[in-house]
Amino acid sequence: MSTEQTALVRKSRGRPKQFDRGTALSKALNLFWRHGYEATSLADLVEATGAKAPTLYAEFGNKEGLFRAAVEHYVKNFYEKGRCLLSRPDLSVEQAIDQYLRAIANLFTDCDTPSGCFMISASSGMSSSSADIAEMLREHHLSQERTLFEYFEKQKQSDNLAAVTDSALLAKYLACTIQGFSVQARDGATAAELNRLIDVVMNLWPELTKNTVQITAAH
C-alpha cells in the first residue's frame, strides 16, 4: 500500500453503514471524465464519492481498479444506449445513423456530465507508467469504429447498403466526425450547434455512401 493510501486509511477508518456502488462509480466517473486518469488522486476520489478510503479499497482495490470499473460503468450506461440504436430493425440505415449521432451529441453536451467524450478526456496527459490504462482506453475508443463497421457490413448483407460500400471507410469517417464533436463540446459547443453539424452530415449522407462505393470501385 502506498504512503497516500496508508494516510487515507488512517484518516477514514471503517466501512459506512450504506455503500451504493453505482452512485460511487458515477461520481468517480465524472471526476475522471473532468480531470483525466492521472490528474485524479485517491484523495479526490474519496472526497467526490463520499466513501471512506477502506471502503473504496475493499470494493475496487486501488485507483486503477476504480478507474476500470468506472470505464465499464460508462460503457454500460452511456455507450450501450447509443449502440442499441444500431440494432433497431424499424430504422433505416440513414435514420439509425442520424439518431446515433444525435444521441452522442446530447451525451457530449449533457449538463449532468462533463463535456466531450469520456474515453478521450480520461486519456489526456497519460505517461508511460499508465500504458496499460491508455491501451485499455484506446481499445474501448476504437470499439466505436468497429461497431459502426460491423453495422454497415450487416446492412450490406441485408441489402440495405450497396454490396460494394466501403464499410471501413464509412465507419472511420463517422468516428472522426464524432471525435470532432468531442473537441467542439469541450470547447463549449452546445447541443444545438452539434445537431446543426449533424444536419450537414445527414444532408451529405447519399453522397457519402455513394463516394465510398466509388472509392472502393476505383481500388
TrEMBL record:
Annotation: DNA-binding region: 41-60
Annotated Pfam families: TetR_N
Coiled-coil features, chain-numbered ranges: none
UniProt name for this protein: TetR/AcrR family transcriptional regulator
Organism for this UniProt entry: Rahnella contaminans
SUPFAM superfamilies in the record: Homeodomain-like, Tetracyclin repressor-like, C-terminal domain
Domain HTH tetR-type: 18-78
GO molecular function, one term: DNA binding
